[in-house]
Specification:
With about 160 residues, the chain is of the alpha+beta class. The protein has helices spanning about 20-25, 50-60, 65-75, 95-100, 120-135, 145-150, and strands at about 5-10, 15, 30-35, 45, 80-85, 90, 105-110, 115-120. The chain is built from 6 helices and 8 strands; from the N terminus they run E-E-H-E-E-H-H-E-E-H-E-E-H-H.
Length: about 160
């Protein structure tokens, strides 16, 4: 599981050091996949082959001529770059992806369970603040999934 937040920066050769814990989660692979977020939030989403396989499984459950399928396949697969890492874990992120995320030099790797995100620090600060406020004000949003996962009754006496 991709956890935590790590600061990084692009070096003079255009490389960034991928956090060691993230590299370990890629199962020893010297590559990962990276694409702009499909929700327009202005960050990059990344992961290994397992993440891309999960996208394929999800999209294959949509009707072949579905506009939803076309839109998300286009948003992810047509914009994905396969990123190679050297033996030290350094990778070059293509300029078009850096531009899409508003990244010039400094960046953040952010764990997001089955994937990771790469943000410009300024964009992430705003996003983090908004979502932290939302989480603080919407604690009940987790009640139903919690009770369902535990096989317990939901609040209000429903089963």
């Amino acid at each position: 599981m991709f956890l935590s937040t790590f600061e990084g920066s692009i070096d003079a050769r255009g490389r960034v050091l991928v956090p060691a814990s993230f590299r370990a989660l890629l199962g020893g692979s010297q590559k990962f996949f990276l694409y702009p977020s499909s929700d327009g939030a202005g960050f990059l989403e990344g992961g290994g082959q397992e993440l891309m396989d999960e996208h394929v499984r999800i999209f294959n459950n949509l009707p072949p001529s579905s506009k939803d399928r076309f839109a998300f396949v286009n948003a992810i697969f047509s914009k994905t770059s396969e990123i190679a890492m050297d033996q030290a874990g350094r990778a070059v992120i293509p300029p078009h992806l850096l531009t899409a995320a508003g990244i010039e030099k400094e960046l953040l790797f952010v764990g997001a369970m089955d994937r990771f995100q790469i943000w410009s620090p300024e964009r992430y600060a705003s996003y983090d603040s908004d979502l932290s406020d939302y989480a603080a004000q919407n604690q009940d949003a987790l009640a139903q999934p919690f009770y369902q996962a535990k096989g317990m009754f939901k609040p209000g006496g429903e089963s």
